[in-house]
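Before a computer can learn anything about folding, someone has to put a protein's shape into writing. The outcome of that step, for a single protein, is printed below:
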Amino acid sequence: MPIIVAGLGEPDENRSNVAPSTKGCVASFIDEGKRVGVIVELHCESDFVARSDEFRKLAEDLARHIGELSPRFIYKEEVPRDVVAKERELLRAEAIAVGQSGRELEEYVESKLAGFYTAACLMEQRFVRNREFSVGEMIARIGVELAVSIKVHRYVRFELGGKEVRQSQAARKSG
């Protein structure tokens, strides 16, 4: 497995172009076998909240989640267009191979593409601590409880023996 570095991808309506917050925390996770390690940077709007047990627990849970499920991206909006195009092409060929065409083919591709995003994007994945919610939904719920906006700024995931490095555009820029 590669080292995965994810961070601020292409700008979108969910992210601002202002400087990153200095309010938040960094959390880490190393699995029991000492083969996978994760560091995650979580931001919020308040130093008081950033020091709270609930916020720090969320950061630790996110680090564990990333260690276990290995997302490639934080937000689906940061998945590079060429990756999405390649995935669409593969799914379209798969649909044609099973005899689908026209509207059925497009519905099949869109359905499978949603599954791709769920597997590849942190915010779309089911949260390992509570599978009833996606990571994005859980972060939003905790943000409401703490009365702040919470954002995953970036993370890095290491796996013993990993030879490849995958980075989002922003991780390369801030690297």
